[in-house]
Every structure is written in structure tokens, then in C-alpha cells.
Amino acid sequence: MDFLPTLWFILIAVLWTGYLFLEGFDLGVGMLMKTFARDEKERRLLLNTVGPVWDGNEVWLLTAGGATFAAFPFWYASLFSALYIPLVFVLLALIFRAVAFEYRGKIHSDRWRTTWDWAIALGSFVAAFGVGAMLALTTTGLPLNENGDRVGGPFAWFTGYAVVGGLALVGFALVHAAAFIALKTDGEVRHRARRLVGRYLPFALLPMAVWAIAVAVENGKWFSWVLIAVAVVAAVASWVANRAGREGRSFLGLGGFLLAGVAAIFSAVFPVVLPSTLNPLWNLTVENASSSSYTLTLMSIVAAVGVPLVLAYQAWTYWIFRKRISVAHLPEPHDFAPAVGPAAGTAAVGGKN
Amino acid sequence: MCFKDEGNFVEALDIARWQFGIVTVYHFLMVPLTIGLGTLVALLQTRWHKSGNEAYLRMTKFWGKVFLINFIMGVATGIVQEFQFGMAWSEYSRFVGDVFGAPLAMEALLAFFVESTFLGLWIFGWKKLPAKIHLACIWIAVCGSIVSAYFILVANSWMQHPVGVEMLDGRPVMVDAWAVFTNNTALVAFFHTITGAMAVAGGFLLGISWYQLWRRRKDGIDTVDATGRVIVGESATIPGRDKLDHSVWIKSLRIGAVVAMIAFAGSAISGDLSGKLMFEQQPMKMAAAEAACHDGTSFSILSLGDVGAKDCSDVVAVMEVPGLLSFLAHNDFDTNIKGVNTLVPEYQEKYGTHYPDEAKYGDLANTEINYVPIMPVTYWGFRMMIGFGGIAALAAAVALWVTRKGTVPQATWLMRLAIFGILAPFGANAAGWIFTEMGRQPFVVAPNPAMSGVDQVFMFTASAVSRGVSMGEMVFSLVALGTVYAVLLVVEVKLLTKYIRGGVVSAMPELDQTKKKHDDEHGPGAEGGDDVLAFAY
What we know:
heterodimer; A: 353 residues; mainly alpha; Formate dehydrogenase/DMSO reductase fold; two-stranded antiparallel sheet; 1% strand; globular; disordered C terminus; B: 537 residues; two-stranded antiparallel ribbon; 14 helices; disordered N terminus; heme (chain A); transmembrane helix (chain A)
């Protein structure tokens, strides 16, 4: 097996894991805006738990996509074009969500805020579902022809795996977000979020477990089962920590579940990056989909410098904003009038020198 | 596969091209303002730290707020940019991936992370971070956006001037990263883009500050004495309209005007360099920019007739400057610049008269290749780029002169002109991109005929589109993205208008003297004192 394409396969799995770990909880927080938060103050509180960091989290998606383009152009081209319609929805969802984060508080009106709340909640849901479906399909296969193009029409990708993958990420994001809120907030919300984790953790993680097990069965490698066992242990540990009121450990336990789960899935399918369900000869693999070793070497150097740097300053950001926040910490939302004088016809009020 | 229905294939290509054009030009409405205004906000905050003058704090806050309203739209629409290569242009992605993917990945890893993370720190870090670190955050974020411009221009310039590769199994593979990342086309385009972005920001400051000063006069706050010199006043009833407010706007106006003029000079220089490279690298684009059918040395000021006619028979040059075209291309007045009629046979000889009979050309296989870009677009695009840029710079100079006594005239039409003038640099940027991308057609990766080595690295746009994606999918995405983009543009402009009309108070509610008296505690590093966050969504 060639070293560089293998390294890059691992790196892309790492980038996806980074994305799922970080944006996982901010997508979940977005979904909880409409399901968990009870009033305007709680919605603002939720929003502000991820306020400083969500945009940086989202770059993991761009980096995973860009790195796939650079290291495995055939994988990138086939996967993204085959999933054209779902990715359009993911893009629209991410657009609405991003704009909503920034614009929601900019006008002081209930209708305005409610509209953007829906944009955040639905945008988060669609983005999570779409990305989950995409990752599930790249590990379970798409109907690709010899050229790597999808056959069978715009919805040929819509299979049980797509649904399982979509639900896997939605479920994980929700429970991870609840654990994050329990860790980041104080007061009533914190306790409610903690109870949510305790109650729903097993159900929320179930679809991802199904996905991992399906891939493990299909590919039949013993270490997949080891990794799945690790993931289950991490999930149980997270649940136990949650019950014991250890919010930090519970959050990390979920991270461990994700890490082991993604490792189980990606290592099981290796060296195939995107199977063709029509003919195994048309599978895209780390070898036939990768860039030249010159490009991979260049990208390795860049990643060796860039990835640790990103991890360092993003970790620093989380450290800066490590304090728990509660509704009492939120400043009053402010509104303002146009800085204009009385309408024409009334006397101008002018302060002279 | 949908090859059976080959008629559809061409239309899917057309729709994919429209989509790329629309989402890219749209994205590039936000990008130059992000780069330019971000740089100015960082400079203003630096000035505040050094001088302690509260006017600069207010400028930082106000322009920073407006910057963020625009920034998020650039972020949101930027994701589409990165995904659409794989989604709609998968054949292109497969062909160029070895060399084109690298700058894209680097842009995300080395620039977008920096930009978004440090901007998050800046937005939420007021009063939380030490003042100097907070200032550093905006600078680091701005550097991130500038670096992102560099990487994406490296990628784009490789499509204009493919260097640093060798053909292997019919695909270009990178063999010389240094050549790719120091591509002369990219370096010049980078300079040109940054100066273009600064021109946008300069015009933006100028137009909005003009409105604010006009508003102060209209509301009777500022008046002028017999010599026309401003007498600054203040209002107790209009939020935020104190004396310092005047200082905020006159300073902003002057900074904007100066920046716009310097930026125009810079973009003229870089544009000239760019033209000389284009003459060498893409002679057809140069000829199309001129609607030049026959060889010559004259720069056309105005050509009439059907500049798009294929045989050039109907083009009448109405007004020309002898020798100027040669100067633009080659720094002298008598180099003969090849016209379309000379270039077409050259291209046909090198790259064929007909598209190859291969499935990937769809309906266009075996049809004649039209090597001439759509000339009305290139001809007028080129002129709009220069024209809008020049008008903006001229307007900035006039504005500086008119406001030399400290305020703007009361005339409403002048204020409207100033607001409208904000659009000129945007128009110049958009026209420049439309020109340079349309002028590259029918190639998506343009061969450079004058240069050995890169003259066989090319790709026709016709073979770049995703072959597995149906016409219906393309139409769906075009309609969906187009609708959402249109709605969001309305929302952004609405929000910008609200915040601009609110004046500095929109970014600093504590300045609203009509609500409550506020003790002025705004020195660098001032602390909030309680647990309430300085900023929250």
C-alpha cells in the first residue's frame, strides 16, 4: 500500500472527525433552539454558547472538502456530483444558518427573530442530515459507472444507508449539543440539558452504531469490532459520567464515541474511499483516486504545519470563552432609531456652537 | 448516463455556466468589501489604540458592525464556491485536481481557519481580551482574508496561465509547486484584487460618511459660516449626534476618499501589468477586449456595430487612440497587436477546428470550435471595469476638494450621487471578473500559445461539466440558489441601511444620549465591571 495516499486517507478521516466533533455540537445547538429552549432568553443563551466558535468549527467542513479535492480529486468529483441535490440542500441550509446566527439579533422584532430561529433550527437539521448521509454513502457505495459518474437519476443515492447516516449525525449532534450546553451554561438550562443527555443518549447514538456495524459486517475486519467496542464503552462511560453529574467527562465520552466510531467506519472500508454498487472494479480507492505523490508530499508539509496550528489556536479560543454563561450574563438586546431629525415641516432642533 | 439525450447535455452545460457566473459574481460582491473594510477597521482600531481619540473607537465600532453584516454573507456564499467544482464541474475537478485542489485546500487550512476563528475572538472579545491581543485578533483575521485571496487567485490564475505541471496520462500533474505559487499571473491578479477591494472599501466609507454629514446639516446640527467653513454643533434629541460624531464622519470621509484614490492608482498599475501578461498569455482575450478584428496598434475608445459578429465584418471603430493598445500590451507605440482574424487560424491550427468526437463533449462533439469570446461582453466588460474604477477615483478627488472646509454641501442630489457612487467600484470589480472569465472561453483552462511547455495544457469548458448531473438538477440548483441569493441580498441591504441610518449609535448603544446619560468610560482596555458579556448575539 502506498504510504502517502494512506496517510491522506487518515488525514481526511481526521478532518471529518474534527468537523463532526466541533460542528456536531453547534449543529445540535442549532436544532435545540426550537425544541429545547423555552423562551427568548434561553434561545439567546443557546446561541451564545457557540457564538464565538461556530464559524471556526464550520471551516473544518471546508477543509475536509478542500483536502479531498487536493488529495483525492476523483473521490471529490464523484461524491459531490453524485450527491448533487442533497448537497444543494446542505449548502442552502448552511447559508441560512450562517446568516441567521449573525442577523438574528440585528433587528428588534419577534417576527424577525422567529424567522431566523427557524433558519437556524432547520438549517442545522438539514446540514447535519445531509453531511451524515454523504459520509454514510461514501462508506457504503453509490451507483457509479466506470467514469465515476452517478447513474440512475438524481435520487439514486436515496437508500437506507443515506437515512441511517443522516440520522446518525442528527442524533449524535443533538446529544453532543445537550452535553455541551450542560457544560457551558449555568442555572436551570444546565440541569435540563444534563437530564436530556441521560435520557436520550442511547437512542441518539443508535443510528451511528447501526452504520458502523453495517460497515463492519460488510467488510469483515476484526479491528472494526474492537473499535466499535471502544465506542460503546465510551458511550457508556459518557452516560455514567452524566448520571454522576460530571459534565466535562460526559462531553468527552461522547467525543470518544465519535472518534472510535468514525475510526471503525473508515478503517473498515479502507482502502476503498467510495465503492461503486454496480461493479467493484469501478470502486474508487486510495490508489486510483489520489493525486500524484508530489502533490501529496506538498500537502503533507502544509498539513503538518497547518493542522497543529489550527488545533492550538482553536483550543485557545475555547479556553478564552471557557466560562459558563447563564441568562443573567446576556446584555439587554438593544434597538435604535435612525439618527435623523424630525420630519420635514416641524422645526429643526439644532444645537449651535 | 444521460448521453442518450444529448440535446440536454449542452443545455446543462449552459446552465452550469450561468450558475457559476451568478454565484461567483455574487460572492465577489461581498469579498472585496470584506477584505477592504476589514483592513480599514483594523487600521482604525490601531489608530484608536495609539491616539486614544474616541472618534477612532467609534469608527472602529461602526465600520466594524457594518463589516460583520457583510462578512457573514461572504462566508455563507463561499461554501458554495468550494463545493460547486465537484458538484457541477466534476470532469474539470478530475482533470485539474492534482494542481488546482492544493491551493483550495491551503486556502481553507491556512486562511479560512485563521479568518473565522480570530474574527470570532474579535467580535466576542471586546473587554474580555487584553486590548493589545484584541487588536491583534482583527489584524490576524484580516491577514487571513488577504491570504485567502492569494490562494484562490493562485488557483484561478492557473486556469489562465497553467504553469508548473507536466501532462501525465492526459492529466496535468504538479511538478513545480514554486512555479504554481509564484505564477506571475497570480501575483499580478493578487495585487489587482487587493487594490480593487480597497477601492470598494474607500468608496463605501466615502458614500456613507457623506450621507451622515449631509444628515447632520439637514437636521440643522452642523452649519457653515460665511466662508463656507463648518460650524460643528450637537443635538440633544437626535441619538448620537454630538460634536465628536462630526469628527467621526469627516475623518471617515477623508480616509475613504484617499484610500479610493490610492487604490485606483494601484489597480491601474496592476491592471496595466495584467494587460501585458494577458497579451503574452491569452492574446485572444486581449483582442476580444478590444473587439479588434484586424491587427493594429490603436486602442478603441468606442466601436460601434455588432462587435459580436463572428466575422468581424460589421465592427466600425468610431474613436481610437493610435498607439495606445501597443502601449498597454507592450510598452511601446508600434507593436502590432494581433486581431481576431489573425488569431483564429492560429488557434485552429494548434487546438483543432472541431471538438473531438468524444462523449465528454456531449452535443458539441464534432462541432466547430468558436475561439472568439462573446465580444460585446469582453469589449464592454473591459471598458466598464476601467470606467467605473476611474469614475470612482475622480469622484473621490472631487469629494475631498468639496469637503475641504469640513462638511458636505446641503444638496440632496449630491448626497444621492455619493450613495450611488458606492456601487461604482463594485461594478468595476464585477465587470473585471466577467471580462477575465468570459474572455478565457471557450477554454476553462486556457492554453498559452506563446509559451512552450504550457501550450498543450488546456481544457475546453464544454468538457468540464459533470456528466452524471442532469439538466433538471442544474435547473433546480440555479433556481434555488438564485432565489435564496436574491432574498438575502435584499435582507443584507435592508440591514445595512438600518445600521447606517442609525449612525454610530447602531454599534454603540451607550452613546444614545436621548435614552440615558452615560459616563464615558471608553479608554483602551476599559473593563465592563460586572458579569454581563460585552457582546452577545
